[in-house]
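Blinded run. Sample ID left blank on purpose so nobody reads anything into the name before looking at the predicted structure. Input follows.
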Amino acid sequence: MFGYVRPVLARLSPEQQDAYQGAYCGLCHALGRRHGWLARLTLQYDFTFLAILLTAGEGGGRCECRRCPVHPLRKPRVCASGARMDAAADQSIILTWHKLSDDVDDHSFFTGLPYRFVRLLFRRAYGRAAQAQPGFDARVREGLARLRELEEANSPQMDQAADAFANILACAARAASQERTRRVLEQLLYHLGRWVYLMDAWDDLDDDVKQGRYNPLDARFQGQARENRDYLGTTATHSLRLMGSALELLELGEWTPIVENIVYLGLPAVQSAVLDGRWKEMRDIRRKPHERSLRGAGRQP
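Blinded prediction complete.
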């Protein structure tokens, strides 16, 4: 995905920060165990949020201390067990594979060679993940095919494009073990997907226009997207509010304050940074937890 889904660490207690780090490390271990060392490179904050949502109903999975391949002298707390954590790992590989395929399609043969090479490295991991999650893989393919149709038509229907992407992410909820939880998660993840798509469209607007690539905001507003910043902010905030409404129906146990922090504080802070044009300049706060301690990153949005 895109790295937009993250907490405001300064508003989490040290224990909550450790728990979030444990989920992050747990997903990393699940990726390595199921799909090999290279799969760990796909690890992102967005997938950590998905893993937390899916595993919360299982009590978060068993937590234990394990060696970290990045910091071999430390044994951080890792929440690494459970079928839902494995499902999150598989889904992250599937999404990464299709994102690489989309990058290949968006470039010429020679400029797309790096993406082709990386995709080749993940071929076997993708095959295993798709075999484990065939329904999710099929839904991702359908959603991306729909997005491609809209792009090729230079469709001004921004909401249709956002809907296509949102439905992809909503399908991840099918890994939840209980029907009621699955329905609520579908709503939460749908609006998260819609929000992520709109944020990414705004974030990439200038580059897309310069490169002549499809951008739903540019198509919708006929080259006047920057003048419609307030409209985008309003519709994106509406998705955040609907996410909050769905969140109120979930029972997440010890993960509740962390998820609430992300939804009510982290996402609005990221939205403000993206819309203000500050997001791409904040390289230091976009580093992953294994690159520095979470507590040292406490000032990030």
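Unblinding after everyone has recorded impressions. The first strand starts at residue 63 and ends at 65.
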